[in-house]
Amino acid sequence: MTMRAVLRLGGGAVDRLDTQLRRHLRQVTLQPFALYSAAVVRIGLAGLFLLFLLRELPHADRLWGPGSPFTPALLQETVQANGWDGFLGWWFTFLATDEPLVFWTLYVTAIVVSALYLLGWHTRALAFVFCFFVVAFYMRGFLANSGWAMLSMLFANYLVFCASGRRWSLDARRRARREREASGGRMSPAGISETEELRRRLVTVLHNAGMAVIAFQVMVVYGSAAMYKIQGETWREGTALYYALLSDDFSTWPELSSWFAGHGTLMAVLAYVTVFSQVLFPALVFNRRLKYCVVVVMMGTHLGIGVLMALPMFSAVSIVGDLVLLPDTFWLRAAALVRLLRAPPPTAARVE
Amino acid sequence: MNSAEPPAPGPVPGLAPQGTELSAPRRAVLRLCAALVAALAVAHAGMMLLDVAGDFPVSEKNAERVDSWMNPLFIQDWKIFAPDPPRHNQHLEVRVKRGERFGAWTDVTAHDNAAYRRQLLPSKEDQLTLRRATGQYRRWVREGKAPPETNRAARLLRDVVLIRLADMGQDRGEGIELRLRTTPIPPPGSNGPAPASSYLPLGYLRTPG
């Protein structure tokens, strides 16, 4: 083969790569990816936050309200000490008030906002309001924020950029009805102006970037959790779960926990499974089949942590995060399966 | 994300772009904005990595920039994933001073633990508030910075403890003395006598009048 032929071959490959890249770039502006996953994150996150606010109703006054030992003055000092009292300072101290009436009005508003966002009513506007409240609650409870609070705030922030109301929402239902009425039953999209097309493409770019960042965030969470664990001696020798289960701070049912802790070999194996699945997670999710295996393992560990180690909210929001990585085809098949299960038995349907 | 997946046939034609050709100026706007969004996303991802890899030389050099980009809205504190579970249990004990005499030691941690046990959905107040307040206070004790009256961590822990004492029906007295009881967890497979606890005095905080 002559040098020239090699160069020509290489040039062809570059050209192919170039056109392929162009096609991908064009698709990123044309096709909003993973709309179902975005909807699932919205529903999961808003539902969990709603559950959280309702569950903490009897404790809300002491956690975020006028009865909190973390007084508005202490919050103010904390915000200042961290240098966060800039132009967003009012947002971070938004819930800090000594007036019970003001606090409870805001609390009820947050409950209503979570419920509406869950249902997907004016989703994009509600995404901003929801994010506003989640951040405000995070900052007001800065003294005692859990992994759940941190993850939910991150997801709420990123979801602002995503089109999470396109599927499985009141918005989608209303739009579908209108389009059916407008086109007389046939689904034919009406032509749109060029400016509208440009707006839609910009929204699509933003959505795709937002979803990519959420997926990346999930990988970073697992990756860094694995790195921290590898540095720990107890994880290396396989006794980490033993000590974690016998900790007074993380045992919903101490008897059950100590029963598990009594099975040393099982605990060591599970400790290694935990570390390895977290180390491998960022790599495995790129494989279309292994993705499901690693997600199932992750859900198993989350369920165990949630029930045994008294961290249900954190486990639940982590599971929601894992679901980001499942493709639309998965959600469509899941939805079809649910429809099939809910459909009347065939004998009843055949009666005409 | 899943660029290799086939496009999903949505139930609604909906709001997706239709792929009509754009005029040159609009195409320029689209390209500029798309480039900007992509750059922001990549920058954010980079900052995220630098933030979680705090000991990395590049992270150390840019620590301030990373901090101002990420915190508090995109906080990444994944150390809570317990790098190394402690091999002991720690409880905060307090006793109230009334006049010249101290009352009996009370295990405040046990009070909170009893409240969260056997609940599928425990409250953050019983689970986290006292532990975090104690942790902050101990960090302050180690650093020995400001006198307790002006220190945030001390004021906070004092009020957290006073709320719990009130729940248990104890009065506030003139002040509270604190100590930390540490009980080792016996290593797996050992069946000797239960290990003895040790105590660390954590000082005395006056109750505000």
Radius of gyration of chain A: 25 Å
| Elements of chain B, N to C (H/E) | HHHEEEHHHEE
**Series of H and E elements of chain A:** HHHHHHHHHHHHHHHHHH
Biggest interface, CB < 8 A: A-B, 115 and 88 residues
| Averaged pLDDT of chain A | 89
Subcellular location (chain A): Endomembrane system
Membrane topology (chain A): Multi-pass membrane protein
Protein name (chain A): HTTM domain-containing protein
Main location (chain A): membrane
Could you write a compact summary of the structure shown?
Chain A: It is found in: Endomembrane system. With 352 residues, chain A is mainly alpha-helical.
Verbal overview:
The complex is a heterodimer of chains A (352) and B (209). Chain A is built from 18 helices and no strands. By secondary structure, chain A is mostly helical. Chain B folds into two domains: 24-80, no CATH class; 86-187 and 195-206, no CATH class. Helix content of chain B is 42%, strand content 16%. Chain B has helices spanning 24-52, 57-61, 63-70, 108-116, 124-143, 152-167; strands spanning 88-98, 101-102, 106-107, 175-184, 198-206. In chain B, strands 1, 2, 3, 4 and 5 form a five-stranded antiparallel β-sheet that branches. In chain B, helix 1 crosses helix 3 (63-70) and helix 4 runs antiparallel to helix 5. At the A-B interface, helix 1, helix 2, helix 4, helix 7 and helix 8 of A face helix 1, helix 4, helix 5 and helix 6 of B.
Topology:
The complex is a heterodimer of chains A (352) and B (209).
Chain A: H1 3-30, H2 35-55, H3 60-63, H4 72-81, H5 89-92, H6 100-119, H7 123-140, H8 147-159, H9 170-182, H10 194-231, H11 233-237, H12 240-245, H13 254-261, H14 264-284, H15 290-308, H16 312-323, H17 328-342, H18 346-350
Helix pairs in contact in A: 2-6, 2-8, 2-16, 6-7, 7-8, 8-10, 8-16, 10-14, 14-15, 15-16
Chain B: H1 24-52, H2 57-61, H3 63-70, E1 88-98, E2 101-102, E3 106-107, H4 108-116, H5 124-143, H6 152-167, E4 175-184, E5 198-206
Antiparallel strand pairs in B: 1-2, 1-3, 1-4, 4-5
Helix pairs in contact in B: 1-3, 4-5, 5-6
